[in-house]
Every structure is written in structure tokens, then in C-alpha cells.
Amino acid sequence: MPTVSVGRDRLFEALGSTYSDEEFDELCFKFGIELDDITTEKAIQRKEKHLEEEGMEDDGETIYKIEVPANRYDLLCLEGLAQALRIFSGLDPIPTYEVANIGKDSMLEMRVKTETSKIRPYVVCAVLRGVTFDEARYNSFIDLQDRLHQNICRRRTLVAIGTHDLDTIEGPFTYEALPPSEISFVPLKQTKNFRADELMEFYKSDLKLKKFLHIIENSPVYPVIYDCKRTVLSLPPIINGAHSAISLETKNVFIECTATDLTKANIVLNTMVTMFSMYCERKFEVEPVKVTYSDGKSFVYPDLSIYNMNVPLSYITGIIGVQLPEDKVASLLHKMQLCAEKSVSEDKELKFVVSVPPTRSDVLHPCDVAEDVAIAYGYNEIPKRKPASLKPLPLSQFSDLIRTEIAMAGFTEVLTWILCSKKEISSMLNREEDNSAAIIADSRTSEFEVVRTSLMPGLLRTVGHNKDHPKPIKIFEVGDIVLLDGTNDVGAVNRRHVAALYCGANSGFELIHGLVDKIMEGNGTNFVSPGNSTGYYIERSEEPAFLQGRQASLIYKGNRIGTFGIVHPQVLKEFDIPDPCSFLELDMQSLL
């Protein structure tokens, strides 16, 4: 989880109270965050430079390092942290954020060109008017951008934030994508004019910015934002222009977020403006900006609207395990910045209409509301109890029954990796390349390239690594394989398989055939003549991983559900197994 460093004295000033370290640690725990470390600015600098510890008498301001949930973006700065703790402590009401009432014709406008769709297609904007910065507020404003870039923005790949002194630029603005040789400007903290391609080379030696260059450097066009006088505001996601840099004297801040993910761009923009609108002349008010795309569609940002969620009281108390009156639940939700109004559904069930503010983008489901109630109530206050017995899923029950049957036949269960190499499910099994396998993107090792489509490689690898073990080796595994499936919403499907392997000098077809009969009889299925769909039977198969003439397919109710037989000598050689092996693999789910 991200850690936020804040000055203790400034935090206590914002909270309006002074705490001992133990008292503040307790407050953090009650709110669901953690005081991770207490240090000083000089101690942090010494640690970064790997210097030895010195005397602590004059180490400067005390710094609190506070660990916050990864999805609580409103807690990534002192302003949001102090506001949340004050509301939790009952010192402040929940703020109401408003978008300034400005007609579309009077709004600042950002015009988006068609070419941006090739690299970063979205942009959202807003204006903070009449901001009052001091050094601490300014540093917090910059720090919040950095923390968002590292967190939800995924190191600027999804969203990049640009902030500008609005008084130095003039709208309407344009968001374009141009060849790098056509973009020229003076970047932030520089005095020399650079072309965009020259800038890429220049920043390859910059420790902070070089890690972002890969996002756009191989693209034929770079994103760029201009004002009406063709002054460059920024080259997202790399650097802003020096012309519009904000300072302590800045009064009006123009914020733009370019993105490949519009949802995250809106969350980032809302976080920036809600956290720092408290310093505006009109507190908690944000000026909107119209964004017009090349197809003529226009949108107004930011969207600070509150959305409502219906959550039954029984759902909340059922999850927490504590029966709470409705007034108590509403009060607890208020402490977590959620307004709740009681309502009665058509079936007379008491529920809450929970209003989720723009600062709480982490609240997506009623379970998030229940979690907030549990935090505000106090996890230590929830009585301990034994959970009610849960009925296992039919597939899990069946898996346990199959395990018992095979174990009673003298086989030992093993657990192997669900990931394997491509060759282990293809060439090492005498098979063509398996196009039904789910491939691991950017695999870090050749051993884990795909998700297994069979349990066979894992069991053979286990025997190959234990070939000196006394014979016979009798092992089995019950586990999932994964197959590509275009009809499934995630593009793949899990199937539960069972596989068994017998390795020994006298390993034969009849040994594994006997295990097949035991499994099927344990399932209450009778052996029938071929073509009969009331039970199971076997027929000749041509699976290349097995020896020709010593293998069979298992047919259950007219469907092929598995194969068994003697493993082909070439396959044994690939896995460095000197002894003959017989093998069985069935699709268990077909038996349910």
C-alpha cells in the first residue's frame, strides 16, 4: 500500500488538535490506516544517501509516514488526510463540491484533434480559480501529482497530469498529435528550445524522466497541448512547458489530464480539484472546461456529481456480523464521508440510499459501504464468533470424493504448477502447437509461458525429477486446466481434470485401465457396450503422446471425456524418465 509522508506539526495544525505519537497511532488504526514510521527530514535524507546516523538533537521537523489503502486516492496528500480525519472525528461536515455555474459559451475550451486517437485519445480539464499557495501547499500540490502518477496513473501510462498558470496562457486550447520534428518548445526547468525528438535524447540521462520516455518515443506522433497562440503547454506524458509553469504567485491553475483510460482520467482530475479547491477563493468550487472532439461531440469536466447507491440494512449487518440500529449505521457512514438516508423498499425491507461523493471513487459496490461501516464501528468491537458452516460447491465435493477413491487405490497426490512452457504442452508430448492455450504476456521465464491445457506435463516432470525414487511411482493430481473460449466474458474457461500416472518396470495398460474402472464405478456409472449413452465405454484413440495400439479414449454418455494408455517412449525421453509409464487424464466436470 502507498505510504504518505506528512509533517507532523502541519498535520496537527490542520486537524486542530495535538496528539502524542501513541494517540495519533490509535486514531489512524480506528480510521483504517496505519502510522508506519516516525522520522525526520534529515534522517530520510541520510537514509537515501546511505550515511551513518548522527545525533537526533537537531534533525528538523518530525515526519509521519502513514500507510493508506491503495484505492483511497483522496488520502494521498495532507489536505485529504486531514479532511477525512476531521470528518471521522466529528469536527467537520462532509463538504459539498460544486462546479461553477458557467454557460458553455463562456467556458474555456479544449479542442481535440483526430490524430490523438493514435496515441492518447482522451483529455479532461478543469480550472481552480483564486487559489492561494504558500510553500507547504505548493509542495503538497506537486507531491499529490507524483503520488497519483505512481499509483492510479500507472507511471503515467494510463494518465498524465499537467498543471499550468492560467494567467500566462490563453484559450481555446488544442490537444494534437504531431510528428516530433514539428514540436518545439522550452521544457520545464530549462532555458533552451528543444525539438521533441531532441528532448527524448536529452532526457535519457535524466534519472526521473527517462523511465517515462518509452511510453511515446517509438510513436510516429507525439501528443502535445497548445494554447491559441501556439504556445506549448505540455508534451504529455513527459514534461510541461516552462512558459506556463505554476509558482507560489499563481492564482488560477489550469489542470489537464491526458489519458488512455477515460475512467481513471476522471478519477485523477476529481482528486486533484477536490483536494485543493479548499484553497480557492470560492471554497470547494471548481470551474469547468468544455472538451470538444473532432466528431463534434463535446463534454464538460470535471464531473463532481454525487451518485446514489441502494444498500439494505440487512446486507450491512449481515456482512459485519453485528446487529446495528439504522440511526447508528447512518452515523457511522457519515464518519466515512458517506451520507445515508433511510428508505423502505417495495418488499418493506429497510435500506439506505447512500450518497457517494466524488472523493470516494473507491466505493463501487454495497460491500464497500459495509466495509466503511465496519471500519467506523471498529474491528476490535466486533465480537468474535465461529463462522457458520459453509456448504462446499458440488465440484469441490466431487473433487474430494475422487481424491479419496484414487488414494485408496494406493496413489499419492501431488500438486504441480498451473503454468508451464509452450514446448511442454506441444513438442514434448509429440503434439502440434496448442492454439487453445492462454499465453502469459511478457513472460519473465521460458518455464512459465502458458497456462497448462493438460495435467500430463506436470506429472511427467514430477516423475522425471524423482526417477531415483523406489518403484513403482504412483501419483495423481486433481486440478484445473485453462482453455481459450471466445464465448466466455474473460476469453477463457477453467476445467477441472483428474490425472494419474503409474511408473514402474511392469507398468501396463491394464493397470491404468483398472483405475479408470474404479473411478467410474465410484461415480455410480456402469460399463456399457459401445454406442450406448447410459454409461461409459472405451474406444481406440490416436493420441500422439501415447503408444499406438496401447491407448484408449473414455466415452461417457456419448462424449469423449478423457484418454489413458501407455506413454510414448519419445515423450518419456523428453522428460528424462527411464521406466515405462501408464497415464490417465479425465475431465471431471463432465461427470457431474
Automatic annotation (TrEMBL):
Residues 304-384 form the B5 domain. PANTHER family: PHENYLALANINE--TRNA LIGASE BETA SUBUNIT (PTHR10947:SF0), PHENYLALANYL-TRNA SYNTHETASE BETA CHAIN AND LEUCINE-RICH REPEAT-CONTAINING PROTEIN 47 (PTHR10947). CDD domains: PheRS_beta_core. The lineage of its organism: Eukaryota, Viridiplantae, Streptophyta, Embryophyta, Tracheophyta. This is phenylalanine--tRNA ligase. It catalyses: tRNA(Phe) + L-phenylalanine + ATP = L-phenylalanyl-tRNA(Phe) + AMP + diphosphate + H(+). NCBIfam families: pheT_arch. InterPro entries: aa-tRNA-synth_II/BPL/LPL, B3/B4_tRNA-bd, DNA-bd_dom_put_sf, Phe-tRNA-ligase_IIc_bsu, Phe-tRNA-synth_IIc_bsu_arc_euk, Phe-tRNA_synthase-like_B3/B4, PheRS_beta_core, PhetRS_B1. It is found in: Cytoplasm. GO terms for cellular component: phenylalanine-tRNA ligase complex. Its cofactor is Mg(2+). The keyword Ligase applies. One of its GO terms (biological process) is phenylalanyl-tRNA aminoacylation. Keywords: Aminoacyl-tRNA synthetase, ATP-binding, Cytoplasm, Ligase, Magnesium, Metal-binding, Nucleotide-binding, Protein biosynthesis. Its EC number is 6.1.1.20. It comes from Anisodus tanguticus. Tetramer of two alpha and two beta subunits. Belongs to the phenylalanyl-tRNA synthetase beta subunit family. Type 2 subfamily. One of its GO terms (molecular function) is phenylalanine-tRNA ligase activity.
